[in-house]
Amino acid sequence: MSGKFSFGIYPLSAAGTPFGLATGPADDYKKVKAALADLNNGTARLAPRVYLIYTPEWEKKMFALADRYRAAGLLGDLTIGCGNWTELQENFALEHWYAFIRKIIERYHASLCSLQITNEPNLSFMEGSKPYILQALTEGVLTAKQECRKRGFSIPVGFGSVPDGPAAVPDFWNQLSGVKAPFQDAVDFVGHNVYVDVFEERPLDLPEISAAAERALRELRNNLKTAGFTDNVPIRITENGWPTGKHPFTKLERSYQRQSQVLEKVIRTIYSLRIQYHVSQYTLFGLRDADTHKDDLFHQYGILRDDYSPKPAYALYKKLIQELM
Questions:
Q1: Which CATH architecture has domain 6-324?
Q2: What is the pLDDT of residue 91?
Q3: How far is CA 299 from the centre of its chain?
Q4: Which of 16, 40, 53, 138 could disulfide-link 81, Cβ–Cβ 3.0 to 4.6 Å?
Q5: pLDDT of 75-128, one tens digit each?
Q6: By C-alpha distance, which of 214, 217, 98 is closest to 161?
Q7: What is the CA radius of gyration of the chain?
Q8: Residue 313 neighbours by CB distance under 10 Å
């Protein structure tokens, strides 16, 4: 297995929550591009990771959003979420979902670094709450791969996941094991959204953080074997971050210094294990706070404040990109 490793970042501000989106001041695309250029430092390529969320009602809005991202140079690693997780019941014609995937590839292929089908399909209160999600995932990946092959596009195609736990869909990986080839053969990577020392009941110390990051990789690799994948399928850490502000439940202050410490420990741990677990990419969530003035677990994930002024973690991430790429 190759030790090749790359970095990415979510470049915008809105953050998904169980209740909808955490938002704040509007994104300034000029400042976003300036920050990405600075993080790249003229030598590395930091891939932006952005999201579209498909429902039949949102299709036109999603294409308008994709056009805006393309114009701003932000259509790199694209994730397409499936369904509105805030709605308990919803009519969803999967053939329209497959058609949407084909249209995305047709219109935006020249700007895509990769295409991820579903973001968190095994998270029980978001995409995983939908009864059709397993079919949307597997048939969506196959649709994307077939469309790329038909058009001669070499766009890596994958799907997303979250770690096992109380909020995860029970038996998800065993269910996925029942989907036979050519599905497994069509998957070029598996994304994993991992948040260490964010939702725990107490703050973790630094050795515990390293152990938690390693455990997340080990458990995913084992789950992928359960689902019929070989070790040749790379893992991408597609979301990892640590919000500042005040924890809404424990009321503990989440300092800028601690953000830097946690992120460095997680990133260096993942990098050190990249060959053992075949991890090919780390993507930070994210560049900018949704709203720096709101103390909760969703509005202050950024390494920049909502006015684009840097927190200490910004310089740290820039240093790590240059050192480890």
A1: Alpha-Beta Barrel (3.20)
A2: 66
A3: 17
A4: 53
A5: 999 999 998 887 766 667 899 999 999 999 999 999 999 999 999 999 999 999
A6: 217
A7: 19
A8: 25
Q: In this predicted model, what pLDDT tens digit does every residue of 207-247 receive, in sequence order? A: 999 999 999 999 999 999 999 999 999 999 999 999 999 87
Distance of CA 314 to the CA centre of its chain: 19
Write down the domain spans for the chain: 6-324
> How far is 197 from 268, CA to CA, in rounded Å?
15
Q: Measure the CA–CA gap between 240 and 10, rounded to whole angstroms.
A: 10
CA distances from residue 165 to 42, 168, 317 in whole angstroms, order as listed: 40, 5, 28
Residue type, 316: L
What is d(CA 302, CA 290) in angstroms, rounded to the nearest whole number? Answer: 8
* Contact predicate 46/321, CB 8 Å: yes
Angle between helices 256-272 and 206-226 (to 10 degrees): 40
Using CA atoms, how far apart are residues 43 and 106, in angstroms rounded to an integer? Answer: 30
Cα separation, 48 vs 129, whole angstroms:
27
**In b/e form, how buried is each residue of 229-263, taking b as 16+ CB within 10 angstroms?**
beeebbbbbbbbbbbbbbbeeeeeebebebbbbbb
pTM of model > 0.90: yes
Q: What whole-number distance in Å separates Cα of residue 308 and Cα of residue 35?
A: 8
Q: What's the DSSP call for residue 129? A: G
Q: How far apart are CA 80 and CA 252, in angstroms?
A: 34
269-302: b (≥16 Cβ within 10 Å) or e: bbbebbeebbbbbbbbbbbbbbbbebbbbbbbbb
